[in-house]
Amino acid sequence: MSDYKAEIIAVGTELLLGQIANTNAQWISKQLAENGVNIHFHQVVGDNLARVSQTFLEAQERSDIIIVTGGLGPTDDDLTREAFQMISGLNLVIHEPSLNKIHDYFKKHDSEMTSNNIKQARVFSGAHVLTNQIGMAPGMIVEFKGKSWIFLPGVPSEMMRMFSDDVIPYISERTGQTHLIKSMILRFIGIGEAKLEYELQDLIRKQTNPTIAPLAQQDGLIIRLTVKATSNDEANELLEQCKGQILQRVGDFYVGSDNETVEKKALFMLKQHKKTIAAAESLTGGKFTETLISVPGASEVCKGGIVCYDAEVKRNILGVSLETLQNEGTVSQACAIELAQSILKLLKTDIGISFTGVAGPHTLEGKPAGTVFIAIANKQGKFLVKEHLFTGDREAIRRKSVRKGYDMLFKFLKREH
């Protein structure tokens, strides 16, 4: 592997305030890893000249390749150039092709070009200028005291295009890298983190290449496989071999790899079994239906749903019996079953799923927050119902309820076939 140390610096107060997420660093890290370059540091610094220049000075001392995103725009708080000039002493000059492009942009859009836009055309003397194919501000690659500085726009679409077109070829030539690092994400549902690690403990202990890293996330458990290889084909072969060993142990809980989410898996299984579904949702408030219809093609299997938060809606719209509401309550196994059976009849689907419970923070009908009943029923009269007790705040309980609903749906569909 390469001995080159890479660092990513994002410039922008909006990142520190949490107004936008630093997705640029995540994306760049993945691209560099796949090209065998090790990322040693991520930094975010606000729009303050002294702090940006100090951050740049630290990066110059410890890293070989420094990638900076943001701060190349026309306003007074775009200070990336000024900060680097403070530590390097390099002159800034107007890049005429970029200036002409900026003039043409304003002319094309029939709007006035203010003088501060000229700032975007300034580049360091001797820099390799990177053309911005989407926006206005060009990027730059600057060699300074044996270190490579790469300046990119903060706008993700502009940065990604520039990085793919210009930066990756430059870095490959700079490092002479012949290895690559590639990852694969395996997604699981319906199994606890401890159980998953127990089933795979010998594989994890012996891991060398690929490495195996179980991780708990909000939307379920994942295992990240990371491999070092000399070619993409070799990497894929090693990843698939390791994946096969893992699925021999815990394949019953496997959802999919990389972007194959539980929603996509559910859609695939429903299509495969030629089934349609509808949901009656109380505490989840439509979240199950929302996640399912976020997947393209969901209209083929999801007819819709009803948010039945109030007891009167459960009674008058979905027909939950008065006896059940009075004797068992809305937070009950009986209510969940009737909701699932009613929604499939009302919307004429093959399967009905229901969610009812207590999202909190207070108790309801004598049941503590986190008490949730989920039921699934089909046209043939079969049903599956379970009581769960989830922890966390309201949002966490609702999110966990939806995930458990998918887990139960997978099991129900498998049991039917």
UniProtKB/TrEMBL annotation:
It holds the Pfam family MoCF_biosynth. Residues 7-174 form the MoaB/Mog domain. It comes from Cerasibacillus quisquiliarum. PANTHER family: NICOTINAMIDE-NUCLEOTIDE AMIDOHYDROLASE PNCC (PTHR13939), NMN AMIDOHYDROLASE-LIKE PROTEIN YFAY (PTHR13939:SF0). It comes from the Bacteria. This is Putative competence-damage inducible protein. Belongs to the CinA family. HAMAP family: CinA_B (MF_00226_B).
